Give the backbone structure.
Amino acid sequence: MWATTMKLSNGFTNLFFSITTILGMILSFGFLALSVKHLPLSIAYPVWTGIGAVGSIFVGVIFFKDQIPMITWVFIALLIIGIIGIKMTAGH
């Protein structure tokens, strides 16, 4: 969420989206902090960043009409498979 509102803040010139970005970052890092209480950092952080990356891609494509080449979708799929694989094999 915060990456999207950061884009909408126009370089932090739009007060509403700037505040929303900061609040989103605080919440996001708070959830990461909760995650590392229950998961090893080596699992929690890659899953957290991967979910954010994939989410940003979909928001960009759907709402900002970003154009993604077909070959890039292959690597996005591999990223999703990697995130799932990391979580499933974590042994937690």
Q: What stands out?
A: The chain has a mean pLDDT of 94. The radius of gyration is 15 Å.
